[in-house]
Amino acid sequence: SPTPVHVLITGAAGQIGYALxxxxxxxxxxxxDVPIVLHLLDIPPAEASLKGVAMxxxxxxxxxxxxxxxxxxxxxxxxxxxxxxxxxxxxxGPGMERKEVMSxxxxxxxxxxxxxxxxxxxxxxxxxxxxxxxxxxxxxxxxAPKIPKENVTCLTRLDHNxxxxxxxxKTGAPVSEVKNVIIWGNHxxxxxxxxxxxEVSGMPIRSAIGDDAxxxxxxxxxxxxxxxxxxxxxxxxxALSAASSVCDHxxxxxxxxxxxxxxxxxxxxxxxxxxxxxxxGLMYSFPVTCANGRWSIVPGxxxxxxxxxxxxxxxxxxxxxxAMAEELIAAM
Length: 332
Ligand code: NAI
Hints:
The protein has helices at 15-25, 47-59, 74-78, 98-119, 133-142, 157-171, 205-209, 212-216, 218-224, 226-234, 240-255, 305-330, and strands at residues 5-10, 36-41, 65-71, 83-86, 125-128, 152-154, 178-179, 182-184, 192-194, 199-200, 203-204, 263-268, 283-291, 294-297. It is an alpha/beta fold. Substrate binds at residues 92, 98, 131, 162.
């Protein structure tokens, strides 16, 4: 039988961890025929709860699950890992400054970068979920220089899927008929959800909906603010949709995107025209296709002036986050 793939989930005792682990064990991430070993990491205050999650995973008797490493030791958690899903982080509490949250997370991601670099398998693929996702991923990448830059990504697939869902609701077409929307930039409210190249049932989204004012206004706002709307409704942040999108992100990255279809991923910008002029070294969400375990930015899309402005605005926010993170690290 094939060797199991070792999947690390950090923050595994949290909400997303609880929704994600079962999906991975059912094969939603790597396929229904790929055995896995789960590595679950959390911090000491959550140790009992983490053990409880591991007990439930044992009790679910998943045929694909060949082992569980549940630990609060980051080095032990990272040993021999092939896929790392970084969900653990310091949450922004009421009244907390952005800089304060950033400072806690930069310290966490700098430390975990070293653990991954030292202990993970060569070719390990990383997806950062914890916010600020793009900047946490950038720090991780910078402090794990032996991990190839293209192997460190952040999750904007949830935003991408939210955009597909909105187009589906508006047109009445099933979501499986909607494709090639784009999330540009930061996983924050400055992200630019772009439908200019998307299709629904084989028709351009703009023609199918026939309401540019909606697409340039309410649609963009709804996707940008969806996380807040979920919190308002559930009193908890998105968890099942985040977990499902993590599985989509890794599955497409490892197994490839469907012909004629792209997705959105936060990746380090290679700079230049191939990166639509987005500054080299920013962790920025682009439209990508994946094949043979590698992503490439979709080339040659026509960018109108309105899009250009929105793409640059979210890049400016990322640049500012990057500078803030660097300043915090220098002071550490
Ligand atoms: P949660 O608070 O329920 O769980 C977070 C877990 O991380 C907790 O169990 C906590 O103990 C653990 N943790 C804290 N520091 C850690 C460390 N240094 N190492 C390992 N584990 C650590 O939060 P939830 O709802 O699961 O969300 C997790 C993160 O994902 C948050 O930062 C949230 O903002 C972000 N998020 C990102 C999305 C995206 O699309 N990129 C979507 C939804 C949430």
